[in-house]
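Late entry, written up from scratch paper. The run itself happened at the end of the previous shift, but nothing got recorded in the book at the time, so transcribing now.
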Amino acid sequence: MDIKFLIPQKIKNFYHLGQAVLANFIYGFPASRRQAVSASRGGPARKIKIIGVTGTNGKTTTVWMIGKILEEAGHKVALNSTINFKIGTKEWVNKTKFTTLSSFAVQKFIRNAVKEKCDYLVLETSSHSLDQFRVWGIPFAVAVITNITREHLDYHQTMEEYRKAKLKLFEKAPTIVVNLDMEKPEEYLSCNSKLKFGFTTSNPNFPASTRRDCSSTRGEQIPISNKIPNSDDQIKIIIAENIETGIDYSNYQLQTTNYKLNLPGKFNIENALAATCVGLSQGISLETIKKALEKIKGIPGRMEYVPNNKGFKIIIDYAVTPDSLEKLYELINQIKNILPLEKGVLPTGGEGFEKQSENFKSSPNPSFSKGGEHKIIAVLGACGERDRGKRPIMGKIVAQYADYVIVTNEDPYGEDPNQIINEVFSGVISKINDNQEIKNKQIPNSLATPDLAKPDKFPIPNKIQNSFIEGENCWRILDRRKALKKALKLARPGDFVVITGKGAEETMAIGKDRISWKEKEVVKEELNKI
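Output as recorded:
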C-alpha cells in the first residue's frame, strides 16, 4: 500500500502550503507584480487581472465564454482550463488530466502570461486546488461559481466540506459572481466582496416585485439590483427570460435584448449568464458581450457532434457527474421527442449542421417524432480512485433515458476497471422505481463516502424504470474501443449515440501510465469500418 494514503489530508496540506509559498517566491509573485505600460493604456502601471471559475459543472465552458468576451472587448487574454491552455494567440492542449495544475505550474503560467502582457487570466479552479493551496498567493479579481452538485466526495467526504473548499475562492475576491439557481447561493453571497453579481433563470428568492432597473452613465441597461435575502448587501442580478432551446441553439432574453447561443441546453444559458456577469463587472457593454457569445460555435468535448453519413447522431460529452448526466440526457430526450423527420433521416452534426436543421424546421410537411422511432444508445463509465458512491447513481440516471446502455472503461487509475464497471452497471440493471436505495447504498472500502444517506438531490423522471437484461439491451465491455464499436453497430438512422466521460481529453489514465486516447478520432475510425 502507498504510504501517502495513510497520511491525513490536513497534514498533507501543510506540505502543499509550503510548496505554494516556495513557488510564489521562485516566480516572484507574478500575479501581484506591477508592470509598466504606456500612458495610452490607462496609466503608468497595472496588474494582470485573474478571474477564478469554480463549480461542479460548466467551469470549462464558462472559462471559454469569459475569454471570448474579454477578447471581443480588445483585451489580451490567457486561459487555463481542463481542456486547454492559451496565452494570447498561442494555444495548446492540457494533457495533464488536472483541472488546476500544481502551484509551481500555476505560478509559472501566470509569469508567462505577465511576460506576454496579457490583461486577464481566466483560471479554472478546482476544489482540490483550493483545499491544497495550489492557488495560494493569487489575488483573484473576480470569483465565479457555476453550481454545486455531488462530486469528489471521496476527497471531501461530505457536501458541506466540498462547499467550504469552493468558498475559499471567494474569501478575498473584490467581485463575485454566483448562480442564484443553485442550492444555498447565500453561502457565497455572504462574502465581504465590494461588488456582487447573481444570475438566474427562475430563482424565487428574488421576486420581480422587489426589483428595480439601474442605468449606466451611458444610458445602457445593466443588471437590476436587489437585496440579498437576510442581508443588507446589494446584488446586481441578470435574469434570463423567454428561454427557448433547440437541437443546436439556445435563445433567451436579457431585459429587452435577445440572445442566441450556438450551444444547446439551459445549462449553457447559465454558463453564458455567468460569463455575462464577469463582462459587466469589467465594464464591458452588453452589446459586446452579445457579439462574443454568438460567435462561439462549440466547445470541444462538450455536447460535441461527430459528423457522419450514417443518418444517426453521435454526441460526445465530458459529463462525469450525476447532475451533468441528468441534464445532458434530459436535453437529448427533449430533442429526440420533437425533432422533425424527413424520410427517416436526421441532421448529423458537424459542419453545416445548423443549416441542415433549419431546412428540417422549414420543411412544408415535416413529420414529428414522438420519441418512439428513435433510440438512445449510451456509452459511459466512471473514473477510478474517485467517489464510488456516485457510480450506481450515474448508471441509474442513464438507464432512465437510454434504450441501450454499454458500461465500459474510462480512467481506472490504480483501481480494478472491472470493479468500477460493475458498480456503474448495478445502477443500470436496478428495477427500483424510487432510486433512494441506490443512493443510500454503501460500497465498503476506503473510497466510499460516509454520508451516502444524505446525498445531493438528483431528480429522476417520474416514469416506469426500463427493464434491462444483460446481453439484450445492456452490456459490460472492458475495452472502450470495442464498446464504441458495439454502440455504433447498434445504431440505426435517427438514433442517438451518446458517449460520456472523456470529452476532449487526449489520454486515458491506467495505473501510472497515460495512454493516448482521442475519443472523437476513435469514433471516426470505427465509423469507417461499419
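The first strand starts at residue 35 and ends at 36.
(Scratch paper discarded after transcription.)
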